[in-house]
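Work through this protein:
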Amino acid sequence: MIFPFESLSGSQRELGLVVAVLIGFGFGFVLERAGFGRANKLVAQFYGNDMAVLKVMFGAVVTAMIGMVVLDGFGLVDMRAVANTATSATFIWPAIAGGFLVGAGFVISGYCPGTSVVAAMSGKLDGIAVVVGVVIGTLVWGELSSVKALADFADSGYLGQIYLYDVLGIPAAVIALFVAAVAIGAFLGAEKLERIIAKDGAPPSPATPKRLVFAGLGAFALVGAATLALPSAPGAKPSAPAAISAGDLARRVLDEPWKVRVLDVRPMEACAQARVPGAECTPPGTLKDLFLADVSAARDLVVVGEGALAELPPEIRAYRGRVFALEEGFAGWKAWALTPPAPPPAGASAEARAEYGLRAGIHSALTGTKAPPPPPAPAAGAAPVKRKAGGGGCSG
């Protein structure tokens, strides 16, 4: 059962905000206890005499990465779905320029944006000054981003959402194992560098805790790599997919979006013009770039064509999870969701009224046109009300 990350949004948004605040306090507490609320501790990273930033942040990255790989391997999390939601697209040239500017600001101020907040909450005036500077810089960029040259640069070098395991063609678990090994080497090298640069000679770190940490990272990474040997679901799907109606797809997209992934295989121009909410535009030529044979099978896959799909493309048949095709394709969705529904007749059943409410709501949300309300439900066993004869106005 895939973990429902989005259960803390939508109708549970208030609970999600409470959880976010608690996580934020925990994160800030850990940063402060690691010494990241002091500028001299942070900037020492660039002088090479205190590599705590490398150890803490690289350790956190590796732990989170291996944890995601392990959960994905056991089918508890769809790692690609989380990544596509949590990460933004890559714009290579703005990323390089922005990284240089953030690094320069880090050295000059002694803080990065996150640690400046930790320092400010600890009462440090330099941390407060950096926070104010970040706010002013954000406002200035907001004004300058309307300049065409800067706006064009901000959109340059677009590569989309790319991941190292896709670029190298290597399973994510193997990448995680390799990065864990790199992290262990980086930790050992950082301690060696500290001893070389420190004038008074850095004392050797305790061997036992260090070995336990390294052993834990290595074992965790091996568990992630071992998930590659877990048995997979039966291989290729039959060429004729199971069907799902437009109404059922709408309910799933609205109620459980974390359990379904919608792929629109129509031409890019048609998909970009109109598509099912949350659908990915994936013309047949781009399906190979999704690596569906290697991703977690936790989510159901729904394929949308122009009309009914007689068979699935081979890249989709390689997916290990359940696959459905939208009945009558996008033409069926258009007739169901983008065409104004007819109100149910008087005395219609509760099911018919609920179906109309769903269709009317989706049609209004997608087109901006409000559908007429359904007729009022008849009161059970109520007799028609007789009006009094005569009278009028305020007399009743």
The first strand starts at residue 90 and ends at 91. The radius of gyration is 28 Å. The mean pLDDT is 79. The beta strands are 90-91, 158-160, 242-244, 260-264, 280-281, 300-304, 323-326.
